[in-house]
Backbone:
């Protein structure tokens, strides 16, 4: 699969039939990944997705010229990345690594100013234009209030924003980030990715990042580069890849399947038989998920149905007198007692699932 | 809230303290010479009393100059090693420079007592007199330096270089210990005296070699401010910023070895200044910026060295303390204080 390269904007990056990996010695090499031709345009945000060890980091290192490709070539703005002089390369490409840093007494401003390294003279002295670029990068990442704070006083999320601001201060054409959301809490992950989407691409740079955040990547990325467990490299718009089943295949496990409708994974192993959920909206969705979690094959319906011996029914009704405002009515056929229909009422999903996991009754 | 320190008052205070320390080092010693007489003897040597002239020009002035140069050199090499290895306990001798110098000195000390060709050569250099020791220490430090640079060009991993440097040091120390075991007590004594470190034995002739070498090393250090700052992010980030890691690493190790090797050759292995002064500067200035730290370490290193030498003389007494005993007594509390400060900074960050 090869992408068409004609278009209104110039190409930031162009890769031709890459084989990436490591040279182990003369004539011996380990190919990690082979890719079709692909390219990047200004302001594009690309997420690289794939399981651990599939070659995401190796791919990113190759794109920024830290690792020579085994075959094929990477062009940055038309020039092979390997032939770029190192200072010139640092002006075109900025990188955020997963390395933890111990910057001692450095302040946010001083650290972001290190992004001007490829522009400053031998002494590292900042010109007026350098200072302006540093301030713009700090503001773009919303760090204005922290500019004079020391890195050691910041939270992990703030530190990561500082590292990204440092990369933005490099004024690169391409910003490459290796798992920028690893080690962060969920709100910080969302915030970092949104900043990359909204503020960093504003500068005109293209952004490539590797991540395990499938749901965020599906929402934010302009395109995905997907590496599956067999080492196949697939690219396209996230929606195309979901609808074609590529995303599901790439991440499929025997015990997990990708549900296209909700873009989530669910357990495939239904060991407890079928169960019907009567209800609508978020409550029905989360009830279904809870039942799938404990091993039922849950079917959602909005119309009342009667329980059968093989499939109990959970009917969700409102219960205004209860704190949660909702109650779950479990109806099942008791095969030991002349197939009588029994009914029990629960006021939390926790009570319901506990009963279904440990309680008596034919539905087990 | 910023706790930034204003640099100007610190620069003025350090300069004033350095001038005061140098002045005190000229005034105090086994005999105290009034400030006015010192100034007169410096400005117009012919007019001074012969005794004062000898003490000021022959005894004290070369010693103070050696202390200023040696202190600055050790502090700068300690700073660069700590940044290069990202290790607060690194110092000028982390890569085994002083062990190599010590081995050279031990060989010369031993050979000068022995007969045969080696002994004759050593005697020709003036026995274990000052020149032979300087030559031997230089050769030993240079041998270790060449081995380290050879390794540094080929090794990808900085930790490997650190470990190999430490192992070179151990190996050189082991040979030295073995040599001393077969030495005469008098020879052991002269080795031990060298290993105490001293600015006292440096002559004007030696300063003509020592000072230019240190001046060159200090200038090279100023040239390394930018790569040293980039290394605060680690070597991999520095590489992505356009720095050549292998070239910068080579330049830093070579500069450090020049500074600490020359100092060890002329003054012996002087401990603690190289480790303690960079920490003192970082915490006093609350900065990790090498554009501030390099001049600060040079000045503070010189100041601490002159003060240590002054204390070692025990003004008013005839006996002197080993210089290394004084630097350790001054340096150890600084390192302890730094450790407490670090833990405070780190627990502060966790809150």
Residues:
């Amino acid at each position: 699969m090869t992408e068409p390269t004609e278009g209104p904007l110039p190409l930031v990056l162009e890769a031709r039939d890459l084989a990436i990996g490591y040279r182990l010695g003369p004539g011996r090499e380990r190919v990690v990944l082979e890719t079709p031709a692909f390219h990047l345009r200004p302001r594009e945000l690309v997420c690289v997705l794939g399981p651990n060890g599939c070659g995401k980091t190796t791919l990113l290192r190759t794109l920024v010229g830290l690792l020579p490709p085994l075959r094929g070539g990477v062009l940055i703005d038309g020039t092979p990345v390997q032939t770029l002089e190192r200072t010139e390369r640092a002006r075109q490409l900025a990188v955020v690594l997963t390395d933890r840093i111990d910057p001692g007494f450095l302040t946010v401003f001083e650290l972001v100013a290190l992004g001007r390294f490829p522009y400053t003279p031998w002494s590292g002295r900042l010109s007026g234009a350098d200072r302006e670029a540093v301030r713009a990068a700090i503001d773009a990442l919303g760090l204005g209030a922290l500019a004079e704070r020391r890195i050691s006083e910041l939270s992990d999320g703030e530190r990561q924003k500082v590292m990204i601001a440092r990369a933005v201060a490099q004024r690169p054409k391409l910003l490459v980030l290796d798992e920028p959301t690893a080690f962060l809490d969920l709100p910080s992950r969302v915030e970092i990715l949104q900043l990359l989407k909204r503020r960093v691409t504003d500068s005109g740079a293209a952004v490539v990042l590797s991540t395990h955040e499938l749901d965020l990547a599906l929402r934010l990325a302009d395109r995905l580069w997907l590496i599956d467990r067999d080492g196949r490299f697939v690219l396209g718009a996230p929606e195309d890849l979901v609808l074609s089943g590529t995303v599901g295949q790439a991440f499929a496990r025997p015990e997990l399947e990708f549900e296209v409708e909700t873009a989530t994974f669910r357990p495939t192993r239904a060991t407890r038989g079928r169960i019907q959920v009567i209800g609508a909206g978020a409550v029905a969705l989360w009830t279904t998920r809870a039942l799938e979690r404990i091993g039922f094959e849950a079917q959602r319906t909005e119309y009342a149905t009667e329980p059968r011996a093989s499939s109990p029914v959970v009917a969700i009704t409102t219960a205004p007198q209860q704190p949660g405002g909702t109650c779950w009515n479990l109806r099942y056929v008791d095969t030991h007692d002349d197939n009588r229909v029994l009914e029990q009422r629960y006021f939390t999903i926790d009570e319901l699932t506990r009963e279904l996991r440990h309680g008596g009754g034919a539905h087990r | 809230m910023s706790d930034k320190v204003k640099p100007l008052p610190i620069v003025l205070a350090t300069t004033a303290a350095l001038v005061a320390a140098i002045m005190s080092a000229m005034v105090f010693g086994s005999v105290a010479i009034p400030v006015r007489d010192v100034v007169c003897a410096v400005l117009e040597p012919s007019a001074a009393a012969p005794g004062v002239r000898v003490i000021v020009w022959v005894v004290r002035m070369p010693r103070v100059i050696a202390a200023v140069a040696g202190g600055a050199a050790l502090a700068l090499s300690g700073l660069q090693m700590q940044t290069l290895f990202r290790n607060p306990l690194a110092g000028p001798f982390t890569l085994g420079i002083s062990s190599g110098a010590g081995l050279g000195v031990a060989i010369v000390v031993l050979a000068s007592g022995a007969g045969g060709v080696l002994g004759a050569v050593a005697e020709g250099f003036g026995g274990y007199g000052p020149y032979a020791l300087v030559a031997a220490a230089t050769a030993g430090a240079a041998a270790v330096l060449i081995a380290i640079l050879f390794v540094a060009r080929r090794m990808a991993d900085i930790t490997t270089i650190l470990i190999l440097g430490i192992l070179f040091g151990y190996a050189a120390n082991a040979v030295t210990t073995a040599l001393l075991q077969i030495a005469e007590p008098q020879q052991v004594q002269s080795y031990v005296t060298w290993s105490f470190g001293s600015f006292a034995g440096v002559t004007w002739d030696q300063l003509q070699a020592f000072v230019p070498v240190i001046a060159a090393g200090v200038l090279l250090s100023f040239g390394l401010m930018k790569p040293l700052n980039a290394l605060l992010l680690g070597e991999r980030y520095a590489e992505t910023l356009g720095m050549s890691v292998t070239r910068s690493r080579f330049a830093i190790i070579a500069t450090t070895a020049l500074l600490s090797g020359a100092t060890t050759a002329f003054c012996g292995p002087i401990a603690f200044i190289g480790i303690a002064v960079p920490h003192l500067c970082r915490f006093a200035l609350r900065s990790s910026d090498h554009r501030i730290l390099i001049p600060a370490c040079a000045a503070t290193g010189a100041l601490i060295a002159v003060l240590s030498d002054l204390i070692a003389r025990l003004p008013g007494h005839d006996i002197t303390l080993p210089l290394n005993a004084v630097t350790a007594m001054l340096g150890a509390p600084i390192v302890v204080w730094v450790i407490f400060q670090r833990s405070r900074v780190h627990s502060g960050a966790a809150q």
